[in-house]
Design brief:
Elements: H1 2-21, H2 41-53, H3 56-70, H4 73-82, H5 85-99, H6 102-113, H7 115-144, H8 148-154
Helix pairs in contact: 1-7, 2-5, 2-6, 3-4, 6-7
Length: 161
């Protein structure tokens, strides 16, 4: 199990790092907790529209509902008070506004609403699954050819009793 987990993590890291490797780093990254600049009403609406178009809002709300429905009945009310997708999105708006102009947000929205953007969204889960399977096979095959000490690091731990 440990081996599969390590391979899965490695696959995700490889996939994500490949995506982010293609994105140039900003010249000077802004301070993470710097006070947010005021965000215009137009930008707020554009970010909300983007998060709807790229499926983030829907996914977040579905995940929160799943968490709440699986929680003990006595915890569900408290969870509903905290897991509010639209409130979280409102808190995310300044982050998006910090990195994207209104024109860039419009381009992203147009992309996600376009046929290729829709295809990208629908295929992302399939791609992730297949990338993980291919990566797992690669790592399993690679472990077989590794010297024993290195292979032991990647091998699953014996089950503890």
């Amino acid at each position: 199990m440990k081996k599969i987990l390590l391979l899965s993590i490695a696959a995700v890291i490889l996939f994500v790092s490949n995506v982010f490797a293609q994105i140039p780093a900003p010249a000077a990254p802004p301070a993470i907790f710097a006070p947010a600049k005021p965000v215009s009403a137009e930008t707020k609406e554009l970010v909300r529209t983007l998060l709807e178009a790229n499926g983030m809002r829907t996914s977040m709300i579905r995940i929160f509902e799943d968490i709440i429905s699986q929680a003990p009945a006595e915890s569900q009310k408290d969870l509903r008070a905290v897991l509010k997708g639209d409130v979280i999105i409102d808190n995310m708006i300044p982050v998006y506004a910090k990195y994207f102009t209104s024109d860039e947000l419009k381009e992203l929205i147009n992309f996600y609403k376009s046929p290729i953007g829709t295809k990208n969204l629908s295929l992302t889960p399939v791609l992730m699954t297949e990338v993980m399977q291919v990566s797992q096979k690669y790592f399993e095959d690679s472990i077989k050819s590794m010297p024993k000490p290195a292979a032991d690091v990647m091998a699953p731990s014996p089950a503890k009793k």
